[in-house]
Specification:
The structure is a homodimer of 255-residue chains. Chain A has 255 residues and is an alpha/beta fold. Chain A has helices at residues 54-58, 75-80, 92-99, 130-135, 165-174, 200-207, 228-237; strands spanning 2-7, 10-15, 18-22, 62-65, 87-89, 106-108, 113-115, 118-124, 143-148, 155-157, 178-182, 212-216, 244-245, 252-254. Chain A has one domain (2-254): Metallo-beta-lactamase, Chain A (4-Layer Sandwich). Chain A is 21% helix and 24% strand. Chain A contains seven helices and 14 strands. At the A-B interface, helix 1 and helix 2 of A face helix 1 and helix 2 of B.
């Protein structure tokens, strides 16, 4: 399996002869407003340029969108992807929003879905603590996805979730070889967070010590305050560096 | 001078060492709703794929936007172009709309403007007949542009206008070597039109017999009913075929 980390949560997986694009945010540096209510800064998003040629990201066999917040499905993605590409979404509402842009092959991941030899299974998650969601119900539903392909490692993309029972259960149920975590924190002014921070990598590692963890969703958005250097330092300190990969934008990981 | 016709009104001019992108509509086939009130059909727009690599269209020195209707400035363009590219617009309103996407170098073409060795001069136009504009005032203001570069042919991009005194005056004033006309007609159900039809090429040729005419803005949108074949047949019939070029998408013209 080849995993190309593109930027933030955007990546391309190559499994067999299939190219799978996850959570496309394809716009230029600064093409979106900053996220409000951030403990970070007010830089426009994305804060970095796309490090992978657009042509490569548009020519894919399947697209998975864990949820349609603009850092996972932006105007560029909605404008550029072929209208007939198979697009897997978490629920009817996201499917409807995406279909409104003329996409003709949108499928809701209610049950495990096979495309070619690859099986996609939706997992649950929560976009912030219970307290955060009580204050910001508009954050809405999120999902993760487990992707299985015969003869390849299994991969669990946790999505925009904090560490919680849902993640713990997904790890126990699917026993993935690879776990992709969004560890940028997305910190609010009261220091609560919308996604995982670096520290929660330790929880995931404790729950799934066999898995390789790939930490992403960092250094691309104004409100994501955790840096790659902080994650690397933490996992070295806890002597789990060999289990945790922190790819640069455009970096390819082979499993 | 190299003129690459991209699609619809989108083109790239190479003048000296400058690459100038005009009226970028960069989205995938079907990425926009059809234009309503069309005498054409209800196919989603654009009706054709982009025939030129995106990478080539984003790497430019200047962008000219004659007006911000979605077939001249789409979400893909607004998402993909570098935020600091010099962007020339017709008026403050268009400038404000584009700046809202984070573009930091938007300039209104009030007076002729020099960038490097190239001078850009705004021309006037009208997006339909007086009767059309009385019914559809929301069509709003449009512009054209004359582009001059020492040692190169001069080019007048008329923009989304019908044939009228403004076009006639621009031809007389600037005596361009090349005139780009949007001849797709954009027909309304009552058979009135928003831009030129094929027949108006004859008017332009009579007013500027020395000029080479490049006919574009055809076969890319649901409401543009004039075909390239119709234009070619008409100019052959009127024995002015050597004066009128009708490029295919992606075709390069050298002047």
């Amino acid at each position: 399996m080849k995993l190309k980390h593109v930027r933030n949560a955007t990546m391309v997986l190559e499994l067999g002869d299939q190219r799978i694009l996850v959570d496309p945010m394809l716009g230029a540096k600064g093409s979106m407003d900053p996220f409000p209510n951030s403990a970070g800064n007010s830089t426009r998003n994305p804060t970095t340029d796309l490090a992978v040629p657009l042509a490569e990201l548009i020519d894919v066999d399947v697209v998975v969108v864990t949820h349609i917040h603009l850092d996972h499905w932006d105007n560029a993605a909605a404008s550029l992807l072929p209208r007939d590409v198979p697009l897997l979404v978490q629920n009817e509402a996201d499917g409807k929003a995406i279909s409104a842009n003329g996409f003709s092959n949108v499928q809701v991941l209610k049950e495990p879905l096979r495309i070619g030899q690859t099986v996609f299974t939706r997992t649950a998650g929560q976009h912030g603590s219970d307290a955060v969601l009580a204050t910001w119900p508009s954050l809405g539903e999120v999902s993760g996805v487990v992707i299985n392909h015969p003869g390849e490692p299994s991969i669990y993309v946790a999505g925009d979730t904090v560490w919680n029972d849902q993640v713990n259960e997904a790890l126990a149920e699917h026993r993935p070889d690879i776990v992709v975590l969004n560890t940028g924190e997305a910190r609010l002014p009261d220091n609560s967070r919308l996604i995982m921070d670096a520290q929660e990598i330790l929880e995931v590692h404790a729950a799934a010590p066999q898995a390789r963890i790939v930490a992403v969703h960092m250094e691309a958005l104004n409100h994501c305050v955790v840096t790659r250097a902080q994650v690397r330092a933490l996992v070295r300190e806890h002597q789990i560096a060999e289990h945790v990969l922190v790819p640069e934008d455009g970096e390819v990981l082979i499993f």
